[in-house]
User: Which sequence fits this backbone?
């Protein structure tokens, strides 16, 4: 007995280290880089495979709805296979060049040194970034909600409110210098969206009404509201269409390059905001409190955190972020408000937040990808005659696959990771 | 214990003197609003003429002609009396307070219609008929929600299920030239999504909201895709026609309500049948008891030998088929062709109707009628020449739902385990 016991205890004694010290060292020491890479790989594997499978499903849809493929198979099996390959290659080739441009052209343009030609060559990739900016804001909005245990499916309505506020400040205030007008208009977007997030947050804290139902309702209230504003009080004078007046030039987000490149300051602001949210969530006391509320509300309550306040703050912040997406679109891209300005960014944002595991950096990466997809799809529609809606289908698949990693693991025969680190997701209604 | 606790709260809610007073003041305020908004601008001697036969039917009932001002003043007086009773009597209207609130709100609407149609003629029966028709998909959608949520699975994908079902129903009916096959296709489309939603949320325990959102996104995408690629270029695929109204003998001869209720297409009758069936099924059969027990307390149900997973699958599937049936109404029962995103958020109004109807079949029908009324009134505003933006009426369902959800007018009782996946404990 004593022999067996002396054996293990002697080892730490040799290094003259107590158990406590060892544990302390373990905690303080930075994780070994190999381990870290593996964890990163583990974390990125499911999203990567989800996107890949989603694109694969899109390809299948392209094939089965292509008349050429059916014509090919009627001819011969080989011709059919060739038609399958051609239809997918043409479509996804257009998607790729539409999203990133053609490398040869970019190299040639830079070599020639002619500015217009360079702009033309980098136009596709900058358009992808333009499309990614609202995704970043909206994705951060949903991610912040998830981190606090709240499901913000009202990002779409918050985007509309943000756009309404921001476009109103943008066109109604005249003669202000840009340095005042632009931030004012941009922040107005945050206020509008924040208001639309505050309402469900406050209702949840005050009455327990579930935020999912309320944000869905607020989405539709926002649509009707902007419909009314655009046909009534905010309608552009003399226009037959339901659009708002153009904003003043002093409220426009400046672009970096000449026409046709539309890349504007909003993208940089989006990256900055993402960094800010990361800092807020993971480096400040307030962010820690919010995350505690999300991870375990009762523990948070016993730790003296005001859970109800946390919900209101989180929903308002989430709303403000989504509102910025709206501001970004009207001040940077459209320069006016029209009914169809948001193509479901608020709903895609749920997929983004899940893809990025509710981490700001992850959301940025996912947004860049979705921006590229959305932008590339426009060219795919032109070249291959494939409706742009295929992107929604791909995104729906991606959403399902990241939400149910078990499906992906079953398809690719992956082992379940030792520690279950599934995405943090709020409870549905009813379940507390 | 939970039951007694809620009964206790209800007691407080109904007897609370503050609530009694607030409600009394609200009744008086509604009366004042009717007077201020509708009676004050009117001159005496103006008549309001309400047509009492829906369009397309030869008039058998004379129009209802009311003296506008007198009618409105009568409504004001009634509101005043109700308000005074509520304030003066001990406990006010007690349990019926919400009902009285509904009645005064109804007075407000009648007052508005009398005012808006003063000096004109307005087809009231037509409005009521279109209310019923607009309530059909909303009620059917809400029944879909009731089925699934009573078993504890949240279904926000009603919108997506409806949209896809509307399209497949239209395509199949156009190709086969058979409306019944189209309807079947719609139901099967719903069932397909039901299987997807069930597998994702019950087997893989995906958050039910996410699963529903994914279905909604997918459905919008696939219908727009197919519509752009096939339905727009090939019109033969997109002309299904609609079910013709069937007159029920004798009953359809009843004045006023006859042509309104008993001269409709199959969807309206089906709605009533499903309504009654679901109510009886849920509350008076063993099947319904089991279904509800799975939604209220799955663990207890499991202990008693009810297969929680199978019951939930069944409920989700039936609900989704109902949503598919509701979706096929849009093309086969109403328009006769498919347009992109033609459901336009009606699935979410169904959801709202289900919540407003307190997860009850007949409650959902009432809510469906109310929301259908708002919808059809919105489209009649222009005819009446009223300067109220129709968008505000279209907002009403959502606003009302938020108010109800916040517990301002009595709190709904949602199934206790709604939205929580069931984990069977390993033995």
Assistant:
């Amino acid at each position: 007995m004593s022999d067996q016991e002396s054996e293990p205890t002697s080892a730490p004694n040799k290094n003259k280290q107590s158990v406590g010290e060892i544990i302390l060292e373990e905690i303080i020491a930075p994780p070994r880089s190999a381990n870290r890479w593996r964890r990163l790989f583990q974390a990125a594997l499911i999203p990567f495979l989800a996107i890949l499978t989603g694109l694969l499903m899109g390809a299948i849809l392209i094939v089965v709805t292509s008349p050429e493929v059916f014509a090919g198979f009627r001819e011969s099996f080989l011709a059919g296979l060739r038609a399958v390959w051609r239809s997918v290659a043409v479509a996804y080739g257009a998607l790729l060049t539409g999203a990133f441009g053609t490398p040869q052209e970019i190299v040639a343009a830079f070599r020639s040194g002619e500015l217009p030609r360079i702009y033309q060559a980098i136009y596709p990739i900058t358009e992808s970034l333009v499309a990614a900016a609202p995704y970043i804001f909206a994705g951060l909005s949903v991610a912040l909600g998830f981190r606090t245990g709240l499901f913000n499916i009202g990002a779409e309505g918050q985007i509309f409110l943000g756009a309404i506020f921001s476009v109103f400040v943008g066109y109604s205030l005249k003669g202000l210098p840009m340095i005042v007008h632009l931030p004012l208009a941009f922040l107005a977007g945050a206020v509008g969206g924040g208001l639309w997030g505050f309402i469900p947050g406050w209702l949840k804290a005050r009455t327990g009404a579930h935020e999912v139902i309320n944000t869905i309702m607020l989405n539709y209230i926002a649509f009707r509201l902007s419909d009314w504003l655009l046909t009534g009080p905010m309608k552009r004078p003399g226009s037959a269409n339901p659009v708002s007046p153009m904003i003043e030039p002093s409220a426009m987000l400046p672009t970096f390059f000449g026409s046709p490149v539309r890349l504007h300051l909003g993208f940089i602001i989006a990256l900055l905001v993402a960094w800010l949210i990361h800092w807020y969530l993971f480096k400040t006391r307030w962010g820690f409190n919010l995350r505690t509320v999300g991870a375990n509300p009762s523990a948070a309550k016993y730790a003296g955190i005001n859970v109800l306040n946390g919900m209101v703050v989180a929903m308002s912040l989430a709303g403000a972020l989504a509102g910025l997406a709206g501001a970004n679109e009207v001040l940077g891209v459209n320069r006016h408000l029209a009914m169809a300005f948001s193509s479901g960014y608020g709903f895609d944002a749920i997929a983004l937040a899940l893809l990025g595991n509710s981490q700001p950096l992850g959301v940025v990466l996912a947004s860049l990808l979705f921006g590229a997809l959305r932008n590339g799809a426009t060219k795919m529609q032109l070249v291959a005659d494939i409706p742009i809606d295929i992107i929604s289908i791909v995104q729906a698949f991606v959403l399902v696959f990241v939400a149910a990693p078990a499906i992906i693991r079953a398809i690719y025969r992956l082992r379940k990771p030792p520690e279950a680190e599934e995405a943090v997701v709020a409870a549905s209604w009813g379940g507390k | 214990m939970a039951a007694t606790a809620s009964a206790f709260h209800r007691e407080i809610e109904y007897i609370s003197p503050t609530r009694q007073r607030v409600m009394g003041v609200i009744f008086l305020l509604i009366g004042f609003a009717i007077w201020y908004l509708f009676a004050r601008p009117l001159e005496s001697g103006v008549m309001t003429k309400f047509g009492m036969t829906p369009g397309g039917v030869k008039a058998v009932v004379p129009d209802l002609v009311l003296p506008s001002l007198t009618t409105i003043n009568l409504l004001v007086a009634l509101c005043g009396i109700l308000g005074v009773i509520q304030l003066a009597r001990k406990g006010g209207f007690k349990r019926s307070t919400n009902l009285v609130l509904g009645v005064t709100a109804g007075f407000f609407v009648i007052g508005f219609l009398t005012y808006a149609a003063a000096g004109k003629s307005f087809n009231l029966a037509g409005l009521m008929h279109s209310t019923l028709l607009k309530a059909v998909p909303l009620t059917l959608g809400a029944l879909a929600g009731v089925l699934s949520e009573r078993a504890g699975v949240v279904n926000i994908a009603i919108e997506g299920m409806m949209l896809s079902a509307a399209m497949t129903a239209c395509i199949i009916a156009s190709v086969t030239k058979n409306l019944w096959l189209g309807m079947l296709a719609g139901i099967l489309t719903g069932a397909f999504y039901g299987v997807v939603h069930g597998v994702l949320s019950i087997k893989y325990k995906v958050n039910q909201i996410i699963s529903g959102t994914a279905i909604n996104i997918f459905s919008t995408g696939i219908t727009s895709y197919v519509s752009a690629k096939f339905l727009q270029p090939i019109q033969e695929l997109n002309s299904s026609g609609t079910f013709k109204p069937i007159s029920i003998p004798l009953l359809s001869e009843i004045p006023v309500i006859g042509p309104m209720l008993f001269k409709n297409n199959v969807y309206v009758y089906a709605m009533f049948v499903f309504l009654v069936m679901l109510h009886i099924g849920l509350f008076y059969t063993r099947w319904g008891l089991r279904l509800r027990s799975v939604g209220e307390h799955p663990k207890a149900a499991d202990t008693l030998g009810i297969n929680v997973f199978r019951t939930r699958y069944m409920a989700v599937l039936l609900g989704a088929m109902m949503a598919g049936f509701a979706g096929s109404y849009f093309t086969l029962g109403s328009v006769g062709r498919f347009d992109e995103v033609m459901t336009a958020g009606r699935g979410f109004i169904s959801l709202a109707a289900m919540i407003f109807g307190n997860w009850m079949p007949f409650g959902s029908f009432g809510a469906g009628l109310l929301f259908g009324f708002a919808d059809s009134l919105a489209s009649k505003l222009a005819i009446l020449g009223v300067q109220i933006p129709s968008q505000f009426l279209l907002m009403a369902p959502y606003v009302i739902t938020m108010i109800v959800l916040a517990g301002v007018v009595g709190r709904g009782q949602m199934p206790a385990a709604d939205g929580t996946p069931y984990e069977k404990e390993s033995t």
Remarks:
- Chain A has two domains: 46-100+385-415, 124-384.
- The radius of gyration of chain A is 25 Å.
